[in-house]
Amino acid sequence: MASSSSWSFLITLICIFLFMGLSFAGDPFKFFNFEVSYIDASPLGVSQQVIAINGKFPGPTMNVTTNDNVVVNVRNKLDEELLLHWSGVQQKRSTWQDGLPGTNCPIPPKWNWTYQFQVKDQIGSFFYFPSLHFQRASGGFGGITINNREEIPIPFDMPYDDITIMIGDWYTRNHTSLRSTLLAGKDLGKPDGVLINGKGPYRYNDTIVPDGIDYETITVHPGKTYRIRVSNVGISTSLNFRIQNHNLLLAEAEGSYTVQQNYTSLDIHVGQSYSFLVSMDQNASSDYYIVASARFVNQSQWQRVTGVGILKYTNSKGKAHGPLPEPPQDEFDKTFSMNQARSIRWNVTASGARPNPQGSFRYGSINVTEIYVVQNTPPQMVDGKRRTTLNGISFVNPKTPIRLADQYKLKGVYKLDFPKAPLTGPPKMETSIINGTYRGFMEVILQNNDTKMHTYHMSGYAFFVVGMDFGVWSNNSRGTYNKWDGIARTTTQVFPGAWTAILVSLDNVGVWNLRTENLDSWFLGQETYIRVVNSEPTNKTELPMPDNALFCGQLGKLQKPQDISYATSMRGNESKFSFMMMVLVSAIFVVFQ
After folding, report:
1. Is the peptide bond before 357 cis (omega within 30 degrees of 0)?
2. Extended strands (E) in 264-305
3. Where does the signal peptide begin and end (predicted)?
């Protein structure tokens, strides 16, 4: 029988346990350790330095579930500063975790830093990558899969398995060399190839593909249906994705379930992610080609810029053979590709991250409160440097991040004067950002006056793609808008000599990046930020600045030398929780002896 003093001890211990465990209540935590370093690899047969996560290139896929709290402890073992960006993760109430220079000071070499964010009310296929210094051109990327909660049905039968594929153009020069080329005012030139999951092409042609290149093989079971998630993590090349003799049933695009349609191939532009349902319903007499080839180019001159992997049935009887499946034959006519993009529609009856149907948010009936026409141009000279612009402004990242400057009420770090239409004067280099209205409803027209395809990404939100067409946008163009089932996504294509219109509800307080995903143009200044402020600050709309926030720029003097034990404390909470459980169980055992 337990004594009164033993009961008192137990009650006290339980109170302490509950107090320490409060942070673990509610939604689950998922913990990741990322060691970012260089490794040597030869994806195209030429030895080069690539950026790996935990020694792997590409990095591991982060597999989480809606509303999980994600904790990523990052150890920077590069020789330069680092930030990781979680592209497509909306970071609701948590702009501090976005991993971009407008919101975060960089992680110095040899330092740890811990990201903590919640994938609140999100599902879908995304990816992460290093956002500084052109590093994505050397790797450091990996997939992010956000699964539905068990109680929320998915709008298709549960697939047999889930497969992540990273495709992208690739150079045999590393990011520092490519960066120097851009800073010298030169183009990067044609890529050396296309990688599929960090590997070069299968030797489908002895003349085009040299011997000895490692290629990706995906093994599948006949008769099963797989969910295949594909992201274009490259630099600037739009890619057509296809699997020989297999239909691609489109199911989801960057967090939105789509109307399910079959495609024999789909154009996937830089920064975009899709997931397909693919049934393994073909004869197993041979393997099948997986192809990612460059779009809108002379195929005979770009033959080497083709990624080829192998789809292998477990009962396959032979190797893939013959020519690759044909891409669309429209080098000079982009109408087919635009019509394909328009065919991607929102599944308004399916549940997304929440039980209610996606279409219950009737975006087409909301009044627009602010309009921006955002126009790019080909690279041009600005202040003696070859730069890229939006509305005549080439963005300059401040030494003190915008959100940090706001926190400490610093003046002169940026200007809230990004123009609502293209400037008529000469281009200029400035830190000019958009002053967004909290709970406003913004219309953005992206006008591509460049000669190449661009994709544009907005952090913090999913926007609705309501229209696109060739020519110059005008007020009359609104008559063509899709106000019912335009896809909600984070990255949209804008064809050369064309426009794309998006609508976005500014319900997420913070500082959010609007940029081209074409890495070369982004590096040279084609971006801005949207600042969304709640005039009545509250933790309900934005979480406080994290205790481990880094300082730089004007606030650099506030940065203390790194305390490694603190930097890794979030990861330690996982074992701390287990330890508390053991202490409590042991105490109960002692009391009742």
Report:
1. no
2. 266-268, 273-279, 288-294
3. 1-25
Q: What is d(CA 448, CA 389) in angstroms, rounded to the nearest whole number?
A: 11
**Cβ count near 294 (within 10 Å):** 25
Asked if 488 and 255 count as a contact pair (C-beta separation under 8 A), the reply is yes
Copy the structure tokens of residue 143.
């997939």
From the list 254, 227, 229, the residue with the least C-alpha distance to 86 is 254
- Three-state DSSP class for 531? strand
Using CB atoms within 10 A of its CB, is residue 35 exposed (0-12), middle (13-18) or buried (19+)? middle
Contacts of 415 (CB under 8 A, 6+ apart): 430, 431, 432, 433
| H/E element, 21 | helix 4-21
Is-contact 194 285, C-beta < 8 A?
A: no
Return the structure tokens found at 36: 């970012």
* Nearest CA-CA partner of 570 in 116, 109, 67, 36: 116
Residue 453: what are its φ and ψ, rounded to 5°?
-65, 140
Please state, in angstroms and as integers, the Cα–Cα distance from residue 219 to each residue in 117, 150, 319, 369, 590, following that order.
Answer: 34, 27, 13, 51, 53
User: Count of CB atoms within 10 A of residue 185's CB?
Assistant: 13
Neighbouring-strand partners of residue 494 = 454
For residue 343, what is the enclosing H or E element? none
One digit per residue, pLDDT tens: the chain, 593 residues?
444 444 443 443 344 344 334 344 478 999 999 999 999 999 999 999 999 999 999 999 999 999 999 999 999 999 999 999 999 999 999 999 999 999 999 999 999 999 999 999 999 999 999 999 999 999 999 999 999 999 999 999 999 999 999 999 999 999 999 999 999 999 999 999 999 999 999 999 999 999 999 999 999 999 999 999 999 999 999 999 999 999 999 999 999 999 999 999 999 999 999 999 999 999 999 999 999 999 999 888 899 999 999 999 999 999 999 999 999 988 778 999 999 999 999 999 999 999 999 999 999 999 999 999 999 999 999 999 999 999 999 999 999 999 999 999 999 999 999 999 999 999 999 999 999 999 999 999 999 999 999 999 999 999 999 999 999 999 999 999 999 999 999 999 999 999 999 999 999 999 999 999 999 999 999 999 999 999 887 889 999 999 999 999 999 999 998 755 444 444 444 444 443 444 344 444 334 44
> Tokens 């394909």 map to which residue?
340
Would you say how long the chain is, in residues? 593
Distances (CA, A) of 407 to 28, 100, 533, 544: 29, 16, 12, 10
Which is it for the CA torsion 294, 298, 300, 304, positive or negative?
negative
What is the spatial distance between Cα 476 and Cα 485, in angstroms, rounded to a whole number?
20
Q: Where are the alpha helices (DSSP H) in 441-563?
A: 519-523
Mind giving me the DSSP string for 296-342?
Answer: SS-TTTSTTSEEEEEEEETT--S---SSPPPPP--TT--HHHHHHHH
DSSP 445-478: EEEE-SSS-EEEEETT--EEEEEEEES---GGGG
Tokens of 256: 């939105």
